[in-house]
Specification:
156 residues; 4-stranded mixed sheet; 26% helix; 5 helices; alpha/beta
């Protein structure tokens, strides 16, 4: 159902031809990059956290990870991911297909600065066998972020 909501959102936006469907899983950065045929940093990781008990999504490049000191400085608490069994309930998408499109209204979206190194990006499209091709500007427009943040560092 999540995929259908995302597909409808992009159909209404006139971008349904950008949705990519795969026969294989695209649930991880490595799998998604292989399915799309792009570099891992072009995959948009959508990470779900709880801040003051409320769900947030942080979108970041596939080649980075959360930097705990930066996260704590920005959100004034330690990074606490949403438990896997609560992600769909709180955000609206299952793990592996979490994206900032067609999500529940109370979810706040943030874009990490790491995304700015790419002009073409591939976030998930509501399930673990899809993605959508978007420019950085389109991602910003359609994800409706609250703010840009700097809470990541390159994976080592």
């Amino acid at each position: 159902m999540s995929y259908q909501k995302v597909k409808k959102y992009f159909t209404d936006a006139g971008l349904e031809d950008r949705i990519l469907d795969f026969d294989e899983s695209s649930a991880t950065v490595e799998l998604a990059a292989a399915a799309v045929g792009c570099e891992p940093q072009q995959i948009v990781k959508t990470m779900s956290f709880l801040v003051e008990g409320k769900p947030i999504l942080i979108l970041c490049a596939g080649n980075v990870r959360i930097d705990n000191p930066k996260y704590k400085a920005r959100f004034v608490e330690k990074a606490k991911m949403i438990p896997v069994d609560k992600v769909k309930e709180l955000v609206g998408h299952d793990v592996g297909g979490v994206c900032p499109f067609a999500i529940k209204e109370n979810v706040t979206v943030y874009l990490d600065e790491s995304l700015k190194t790419n002009q073409v990006l591939y976030p998930a499209a509501g399930n673990d066998q899809s993605a959508i091709e978007l420019s950085l500007q389109e991602l910003e427009h359609h994800s409706k972020p609250s703010a840009w943040v700097d809470v990541c560092k390159l994976r080592s």
